[in-house]
Amino acid sequence: MWELKDPKPAKLIIGILAADRNCLHAAVEAVIDRFGKTDFTSNVWPFAETDYYREQTGARILRQFVCFEKLIHPGKLAKIKLKTNKLERKLAKAIAIPLSRPVNLDPGIIEPAKLVLATTKNYSHRIYIGKRMYAEVTLVFDKGRWQPFEYTYPDYRTPHYHDFFNKVRTRLLEQLKSQR
């Protein structure tokens, strides 16, 4: 008989795309209020690798990541994505600027060997995780660094993202070690 094992906890991260600094600030405050204390927040970077969100979020999109102190069960990712979608709609109403999606919240998890993002969109490399949500392994940590796939979003290939994810991964390893 096979022995079933529970998955190890993971670090929750939320990638935020925002129309401007006010929208970004509102989004960061909202996710902290909803998901709890952070242990890391990335720098703010321009999001210029694609025009995909331009109509919804504007011409000069900003990117920031928020990482939460408390570890989560990786099986909660679909439920978290539902919560961030609801939070996006709430923020769009509260911010009330003439953009349909002034903030975009993309939750994911970092485990020691990978970064997984949740999405509402199915595709060949994505796996259904329940609650009408999908997940993809966006990066793997191999040979001491983050490695992309051919489908990895262009911005997730950048060294400054990898530097931030390294910091999160190191903290995760410390937290997992202290749980033993």
Description of the structure:
Helix content is 33%, strand content 33%. The chain is an alpha+beta fold and 180 residues long. It has one domain: 2-Layer Sandwich (Alpha-Beta Plaits), CATH 3.30.70. A hairpin with a 2-residue loop joins β8 (133-142) and β9. The two termini are 26 Å apart.
- Overall number of domains: 1
User: What average pLDDT do the residues reach?
Assistant: 97
- Beta content comes to 25-35%
Proportion of helical residues? 25-40%
Total beta-strand segments: 9
Helices, by number, come to: 4
In the CATH scheme, the class would be: Alpha Beta
Q: From the 3D coordinates, which CATH architecture would you assign?
A: 2-Layer Sandwich
Distance between the termini: 26 Å
Order of helices and strands: EHEEHEHEEEEEH
The radius of gyration over CA amounts to: 16 Å
Uncertain regions spanning at least 5 consecutive residues: none
Largest pleated sheet = 9 strands, antiparallel
Computed structural class: alpha+beta
CATH topology: Alpha-Beta Plaits
Outline type:
globular
Put the structure in a nutshell.
The mean pLDDT is 97. 33% of the residues lie in helices and 33% in strands. The protein is globular.
